[in-house]
Amino acid sequence: LQSMKMVPVPEKAYGTFFEGDCYIILHTKRTSRGSAVDLHYWIGKDSSQDEQGAAALYVTQLDNALRGNPVQHREVQGHESETFQSYFRNGIIYKKGGVASGFKHVETNMYNIKRLLHVKGKKHVSATEVALSWDSFNKGDVFLLDLGKVLIQWNGPSCSIAEKSRGLALARSIRDSERGGRAQIGIIDNEKDSPDLMQIMKMVLGERRGELRDAIPDAKADELQKANVRLYHVYEKDSDLVVQEIATRPLTQDLLQHEDCYILDQGGFKIYVWRGKASSLEEKKAAFTRAVGFIQAKGYPSSTNVEVINDGAESAMFKQLFQRWTEKDETQGLGKVYTTGKIAKVEQVKFDTTQLHARPELAAEQRMVDDASGEIEVWRIEDLQMQPVNPKTYGQFYGGDCYLVLYTYLRSGRPHYVLYMWQGRHASVDEITACALNAIELDKKHGDEAVQVRVTMGKEPTHFLAIFKGKLVIYEGGTSRAQESTPEPAIRLFQVRGTDEMNTKATEVPARASSLNSNDVFLLTTSQVCYLWCGKGCSGDEREMAKVVADIVSKRDKHTILEGQEPAEFWEALGGKAPYANEKRFQEQITHYQPRLFECSNQTGRFIMTEVVGFCQEDLDEDDVMLLDTWEEIFLWVGKASNTYERNEAIASAKEYLKTHPAGRDLATPIILVKQGYEPLNFTGWFNAWDPYKW
């Protein structure tokens, strides 16, 4: 918010927040039942009361404009919800001052910078600007000394590997988004080994006197506290506001009457306001004010998280606080529906692109800038230069290469640009750097107008899939260069996911039977033939899209085979039969329970869990113990470098999790302990494009 008005933030600055400002964030995500919309207003610690009031007002207006669909959140600097933090995977940066004072100055003097950032967190990273002094340092965190053209990452002696790598991801993100890729990053992991970098630090900070401070543990709510849920009925009586407690755990859905508004207090860790469909407009408007009043009355900290929820558009987090939750169109509650297959089946939604112009907010969050009908140009990075790719092979990406994809589309008669930097998993560091530098040059040629998108192999955004019209193929290794000398593998296996040309991609997986999954179509190419293997759980649309891809990956005859009717040659090509992710009781019904991944920590004697929203394999760090809750089973994933205490306490932690779960879970739920590098299929099936060789 700038002078009480909403001003759009340029995409390059997403994730950077000025402490003197308030912000509004709109996030839309496709789900199996349409789309989930979240609306957050973020309060900087130095923002004025007026700005905070204006932000809350705008959120209410936006909510009305979006017909009461969004889940609304109040976020306070340093105490953001896990959902909010999941939008900024490289971390959140807090800058001193406000936009008015700081913004223009950053644009013009990109390198004229001297600041110290205190980086905290392992799963959710945030960086706060602190005083340029050794007094700001401690032994347990990462600090970034940002001098514009040079970024020095100083790792505290008691930092974990994950904290160091998240710190580096943040440093790279500052380099790529704020410095256009043109800054050097130096790392001090051990002061004795980096005399030159320490010299620079001493020049800026002076000589260090005395010992460094010990690390400060984060104050987090434990599971016992979060389990203490209470439901309050909120209503007006003779112009007085009455808040009446009506129930404690386990809560049931029938307690919520459509004519009323309720406050659900999750142990002071988070406050939910539920607004009934038939409650009065006045009541709906007062939701945030009431929540803040409730927080004050209870003596909770003013940073307490608030989520405002509408009847019929409840968030997954909210539903899981109830013993059973039934959707309008289903007859059974949470527990029952989940007896369907234990393999993750990703519901592919037909997406109506004609809505994009009518609802730009949908476009922004679907990552769909348009209907994908624009022009594409693709270059490969070769000898650190851009080499045009033959248009006949557009859509084919090799894990040993980096590519630049320039997408041009017209809006109101003028060209707009999106520049994707696709980085292969096996590309060299030099190529990845060259890719970023060439992107800057290409962006310059287009008047610095391109939206630059860094795409990591396997994490391609929706729009990227859509522009290749169902012909996106990702080869695990190799390169598409002309003088490539290594022969292509004789046998390759591809997993095809997608139901139409807007959402399809084929990913190469290891050519062995254990890679198969009953939910998908797989293409097995040999020197004689190309098999289209159709899993029991795949749909007709998925089979049709696989045929399109089959013509790209193989010129041989195509044979369609159904799961369970494979010829002997099929298994032979895969090196023999082997168990794979399949489920006898498979039904084509999608569970509404979203699997959830948590980082577990039991070090302080208190059981603390941090949720990772929108998780992937990258979120499993080797010094972690992670808990994956798929409702029917609880998986504990134990990293190689996790500490013995947490490893030994893992099973106890899982039992504690079930016992304290607000929904009153079945304590007999199976608990499965999984070791890093030995993950079974019923675990890896919940992750998209799992890479068995990652570690």
From TrEMBL:
It is found in: Cytoplasm, Cytoskeleton. GO terms for cellular component: actin cytoskeleton; cytoplasm. It comes from Fulmarus glacialis (Northern fulmar). Residues 4-84, 125-197, 247-319, 386-465, 504-571, 607-683 form the Gelsolin-like domain. Belongs to the villin/gelsolin family. SUPFAM superfamilies: Actin depolymerizing proteins, C-terminal, gelsolin-like domain of Sec23/24. SMART domains: GEL (SM00262). This is Villin-1. One of its GO terms (biological process) is barbed-end actin filament capping. It comes from the Eukaryota. InterPro entries: ADF-H/Gelsolin-like_dom_sf, Gelsolin-like_dom, Gelsolin-like_dom_sf, Villin/Gelsolin. Coiled coil: none annotated. Keywords: Actin capping, Actin-binding, Calcium, Cytoplasm, Cytoskeleton, Repeat. It holds the Pfam family Gelsolin. One of its GO terms (molecular function) is actin filament binding.
